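Figure 3 (text version): structure tokens given as input.
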């Protein structure tokens, strides 16, 4: 049962990560020439989503092929949504 929950969690995390990356690229790409802080929300979204996804995948399956940690991808999906909300609040201040 843990393998099924882990696989469904990985699927949910993947869908959430792709959605956050897509919305982040469309929403946080600066339209006017700028340097510095205006690129922060885009970089946080891009780098943070990739780091969270890789970390959750590693935490789920490393040394646990028979008994995967089924909670890790769900935590990763939640953290990805929180990361997007933080980037959104930063974007409201700097863009």
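Below: residues designed for each position.
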């Amino acid at each position: 049962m843990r393998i099924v929950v882990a696989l469904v969690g990985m699927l949910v995390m993947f869908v959430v990560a792709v959605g956050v990356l897509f919305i982040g690229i469309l929403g946080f790409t600066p339209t006017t020439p700028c340097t510095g802080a205006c690129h922060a929300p885009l970089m946080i979204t891009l780098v943070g989503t990739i780091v969270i996804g890789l970390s959750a995948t590693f935490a789920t399956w490393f040394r646990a092929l028979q008994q995967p940690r089924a909670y890790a991808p769900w935590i990763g999906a939640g953290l990805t949504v929180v990361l997007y909300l933080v980037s959104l609040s930063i974007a409201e201040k700097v863009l």
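The chain has a mean pLDDT of 92.
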